[in-house]
Design goal:
- The chain has 118 residues and is α/β, with parallel strands linked by helices.
- Helices cover 38% and strands 10% of the residues.
- The strands form two sheets. Strands 3-4-5 form a three-stranded parallel sheet, with no helix packed on it. It has a two-stranded parallel sheet with strand order 1-2.
- Helix 2 runs parallel beside helix 3 (54-61) and helix 3 (54-61) runs parallel beside helix 4 (78-87).
- It is globular and about 35 Å long.
Length: 118
């Protein structure tokens, strides 16, 4: 899949009319676009993204909408995982990460991955 960047302008277009943009077709998210999207109160489905910068994760960590779907991520830093985990209430963050490939991030996000301690 060719890289496709979600910019601040595209984010603003989505916020003005959520049916005008399919967010799932984007593989990269600009930090300022993440900041704009964090203001949305509905659900954000961004499963086209394969990675997330620490700054974008910090913005999305402040997202207070219904849910945030990041199931396309294939990498996530410890700092990004921490930002997402701190801000999201249980069940509002959807991730489909392979814990074996994300050892540091996994411990932070184990609840969202469904690996609760017994």
């Amino acid at each position: 899949m060719a890289e496709k960047r979600l910019t601040k302008e595209i984010a603003e277009q989505f916020l003005a009319d959520d049916e005008s943009v399919d967010l799932n077709k984007f593989t990269e998210l600009d930090d300022d676009a993440a900041e704009r999207l964090s203001k949305d109160k509905g659900g954000l489905i961004l499963y086209g993204l394969t990675s997330l910068s620490d700054a974008a994760a910090a913005s999305l960590g402040n997202y207070d909408g219904e849910w945030l779907d990041l199931n396309g991520l294939t990498s996530l830093s410890f700092a990004a995982a921490e930002s997402l985990e701190k801000q999201h209430k249980e069940g509002s963050l959807s991730l489909d990460l392979d814990a074996d490939t994300l050892p540091e991030s996994f411990e932070i996000l184990r609840w969202h991955l469904g690996y609760q301690d017994e």
